[in-house]
Specification:
Order of helices and strands: HEEEHHEEEH
Radius of gyration: 20 Å
InterPro entries: DUF3577 (IPR021960)
CATH class: Mainly Beta
Shape: globular
Strand order of the largest sheet: 1-2-3-5-4
CATH architecture: Beta Barrel
Helix content: 10-25%
Structural class: alpha+beta
Protein name: DUF3577 domain-containing protein
Largest sheet: 5 strands, mixed, barrel
Number of domains: 1
Pfam family, one: DUF3577
Amino acid sequence: MTLTKFKSNNQASANSPSSDNDERGYFDLYIRGIGYLNRLRTVEPKRARKGDAYLAVQIAAMEGDKNNPDYRYFDAIVVGETAKQLAKELEAGINDKDVKVLVGFTCGGVRPEIYQPKKGAAAGENRVSLKTRLLRLSWVKVKESDSGDYETVYQAETTAEEETSADENRDAA
């Protein structure tokens, strides 16, 4: 086995897998998945110096067996412009317990945050919340009632990266 030597001139080599990120000076970590949107709200920071109001949503991401999935919950700040527009248009459905809003999503900047509930049986106990930024919605489907079918209300153009990922997932199955 032969290893390629890279010059240490603080510039990324074209052969380096992280060359795009190195040029920008940071690394990206994305999570793509399928889940339900819940609890859409506008958050007003308590102190003026903390910034402007922002749109937040809970994502109930699905994992595991498609017939009996487990859910992972993310508290997301909606930052993607198209995602903001779609969330605002679907606000009534997202916040209606009888309507299901199923999405394909991309998030970034995931980090844990410890908090203590102030009410209920868990009051005073440490809990962990996963915080993230909702960057993109790939598609949105809405189901008005338990007996109805999902209706596709939005479909984004597929990126080359998503096509590659979909091909890899099909090959692995």
